[in-house]
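hiii, so i know i said id send this last week but things got crazy w the move. better late than never?? heres the sequnce for the chain we talked about at the cafe, plus the structure i predicted for it. fair warning i was half asleep when i ran it
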Amino acid sequence: DDPSGFKEEMFVARGSALNLLGIIATSQGPGAAEAAADDKSSRKRKTSARIAKKKSNCAGGSILAYLAQLQMPPSGADPAGREVSLYYGVMMAYGGCSKYLATQPESTISTFVRSRVLPLFDTFTSPYLMACANWVLGELAGVLKHVPELVGRLVDATVGRMEMPPTPQPPAVERAFAAVAAFVQVLEDAAEEPDGMEEDSKSRPASSVADAVPAMFISSLEGAPPPSCLPECSKFLALLLQATMDPASDFNLGAGAAPLVNCYAGLLAEWPAYEEEEDEAALLALDTILDLSLCATQEHMVLGAPMEGILAFLIGTMQSASSEPASRACFRVHRILEGTRGEQHLTTNASIVPMAAADAAAVSTSCAACGRLQGLECNEEGALPPLAAPLCLAVAAGVSRQPEAVIPALHAGNGVTDWVKALRDVLAAGKLGMVSELRVAACSLARLLQALGGTGSTELRVSVMEAVLTALVQVRKQRQEQDLDVAESDVEEEDEEDDDEGVDSSEEEEEEEEETEEQFLARYAEAAKELEEGLEDHDNGEVDEPDTELSLGGLFSGKNGEPVITDEHAMDPAMASIFLAWLQAHASSSDHTALSAVLQARPVPGLVHISKLSEFVATFTTPQQ
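okay and structure toks below
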């Protein structure tokens, strides 16, 4: 067989050979043990010559010397000929020795790349050979940051070789994307180091990356990269947008940001990244896009055109993904809906998204989240799975953002009733732990009451009333606990400095002692049994939870002639006032009777009797001090 190993059955054997070659390259030859003992006994008399002699004992030097004797294929060589196939094997060997190469002096590595790798970009004899060359560059990215032309050469070679869909992209394209991503990661890591790359601190990302990467994106408009390259695309876009927002950076995409986001959104729409671990890269890119959209200094960024592709990705994630990625998509939906305010609510020169697109986004995402919510099944105790909470919040964000459009859309298929019941149960179970989450729930329910007026079934109206009461009570409780925590932290601040370490360690010990070995083994045996029997439910896994409070300003955007509320603390009395007005105008005696029966089974703290309902709600209409 030829040395290229193109055949699929050679893949495992080739990988084993590369691993063995890498071990040999970094191992020391005969005499290394004696040299090490001699160095230890005479450590004080070490010289640079001895250290160099010790390094020379590694077999990697001999391997590189042998490979250097094998010539590169000439320009115009037959891609299927022996010369190209032989040099493919040489490049594979270089990749196997990449760990040893990375230990060599910078000048040696630079010379190697310029003499043995870069010339291939001028001849381009074989897509397989180019793929291997790109792989080698990616493996050495961590030690090649001072060879500035590399990224440009990689991108030029990639852009010129991309195929038109649906033709699969050649391996060289995939390897090039991975190599450029490796260089990008090196730049990011260096920028995060306090003492690293100080001379380039005002030019992050390096000009070679900043100038070359957009070309790779723009080329995707004509020839889409393969799905395996989209994680790299996400990293590229996040890097460029972050640099654009960085005041310390001289790099700014300006008006060029919109085409890149448009290109990426088109690729994202058909990328099921939620099925793989790469969804992290996509979510990072989405967060960066939203950060730039909300940045008042960026006048050129209008999140209108790419909205369709981004929403398609998020909707697909909410509908089909497992619990954790689906919950992540829910929180990005909330951020989009909260951030997509109309032109009349903006102080910047450009709106984040046209109002029509924002309204359509509220409808499509709310219906998608509600559809997934309706498909969830309760456990044996009657409790909904953890995914119900973020799905309820996604629907609530849409209802709060555009009730006139979302509520009628949800009514089809009994969506409103099912959502309200699920939100009521989520609230009753205490699954919304942040004040902002509770406020989103209360806001959406108040909007629903306004839309219902005197209509709707008694069952629906009572469920809304119970859910609003629960949300208002829990918001008050959460705020009181937060105020108490702040007061206690102020008083005990000095003591914490002395006792912090001991308290933390004792708490950790207590947490570690909570589960015995027998319990641990039993728990994991049960988990293994469930996996073997295929009992793991797609909807019952863990969910992602936000690290910070959700932003709410865009959700309460002044519907029905109401003023825009920018102070989140003013939302609680505003929502309570809407609820109180509805009670006084539309609540019937049958509503009160039905709610009284419900509260006997699930009492609301502080509400002593149904006859005191209006008085109880009125206590929430005054801003809490």
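btw Residues 458-491 form the longest helix (34 residues). thought thatd interest u
miss u guys!!
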